[in-house]
What we know:
Elements: E1 4-9, H1 15-29, E2 32-40, H2 43-52, H3 57-88, E3 104-112, H4 117-122, E4 127-129, H5 144-151, E5 155-157, E6 169-173, H6 178-193, E7 196-203, H7 210-224, E8 230-236, H8 241-251, E9 256-260, H9 274-282, E10 287-290
Parallel strand pairs: 1-2, 1-4, 2-3, 4-5, 6-7, 6-9, 7-8, 9-10
Antiparallel strand pairs: 5-10
Helix pairs in contact: 2-3, 8-9
Amino acid sequence: MIKHVLASLTGLASDTAVLETSLSVTKAFSAHVNCVFVSLSDPGATIKVAEFGWMPAREIDVMRGLQQRAATLAASAKATFEGFRDRRKLVIADRPGDRPRGATFHFGWVSATTAGETARLARCHDIAIVARDSPNAAYEPERAGTVLLNSGHPVLVPPRRAAKTLATRVAIAWKDRPEAARAVATSLPFLAKAESVTILTANEGQRHSRKTDASAEALARSLAWHGITARTKTLKVSPAVSEAILDEAYKLDVDLLVMGGYGHSRAREFVFGGMTREILATCEIPVLMSN
């Protein structure tokens, strides 16, 4: 069950979609959303130290610029949250003991000392909602992929404009891989509430086999034990798997795509597989990923 949600705010335009999506999640599960703006520790302290020591004036100017941008983005994130709170009449809570029944929200600004703070925060939440194209402050590119690969928890990535509904019609991009299996497992709360679930597999020519179809059918039977009715569909790939998956998802008018995040590089913490990268770059459907 989803009860504790992290919404990563950045002070950029994507915050609105993150907040709208988090509201859809918390309404569905009566969850609490922790809305957090993350920046690296205040460079102002470093500037004061530098001014008494040796540091080129240009570097001090750069740090002052970062400090100003961090403050500007933090103020923007807070203003966006407060405007959303007032429009949506959000219930604010900080601790579980103070929390009334139903959906609640909280806003905070975290000053981190090292990169990766959003991923660390996500480890203590059931799911993180992270914009795909929004760097956190000016210092730390905390894109959805970075959080996914370093948090150990699922990440929900909203489209650039938040969907009007969430997880009423779900497509699963299925591949007989551990990442896809974990994505399905973490999406079970959403699948249980969905009106329709479609398992999509891709016919990749010689690489496609009866085992792929059998694996999809096995997944459908497994979901049936959860009371979830799912149908399977095999797609012809032309020219790319990601395009075939997205085309079918649009045809089905789904409002959630479930998939694994595939990393193929040795530097797996930094590099995504092509399918994940392409879908995140172009998809206008909420995407739930696990790794």
